[in-house]
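Final report, section 2: Outcomes. Of the targets proposed, Crossover junction endodeoxyribonuclease RuvC is the one most frequently requested by collaborating groups, and we therefore present its record in full.
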Amino acid sequence: MRVLAVDPGLTRCGVGVIDGLPGRRLSLVEVGVIRTPSTDATPKRLVALEEELREWFERTRPEAVAIERVFADTNLSTVLGTAQCTGIVMMLAERRGLPVTLHTPTEVKAAVSGSGRADKRQVTTMVTRLLGLDHAPRPADAADALALAICHVWRGGTQNRLAAAAEAHATTLAARTATRPNPVPTAGAPRR
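The predicted structure is given below as tokens.
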């Protein structure tokens, strides 16, 4: 499975793409950071971000998309920029019919390092090892995007398959119920 993962941000947006399956070796496809100047107006920055992300989707052809879940912060402008970036990624994925999964930072840290309280250095070290890289991905936004992609392969892919199986089962049950005839009393038949 090829996963495109985004550590959303308006100034620095980490993007990482990996190939992998649970229990199998993971491989790096591409990693980078999209930057927009803080001096530009927000609409201009959003357009630039959308154009760059669209190129990532077209170039790497992912099968699934993982995004770090926005969490509350005291800096409202940071939260808004992160949420706006998240919306762009979701829109691009939806237009391509790709499943999108949001993962919390704690979930990502736990998946990659074994501890939801791991610091950035520990996460970066594990990302470097798990992907067999010669050197750690820089800046931290790039490493975070790769950690998110790894988390998705190991956890999100399974969650998506379980959700799809549950949905298929519910659809099958609904179809069976819809095709069962409802007994209708005929004229003259005793009612119970």
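The first strand starts at residue 2 and ends at 7.
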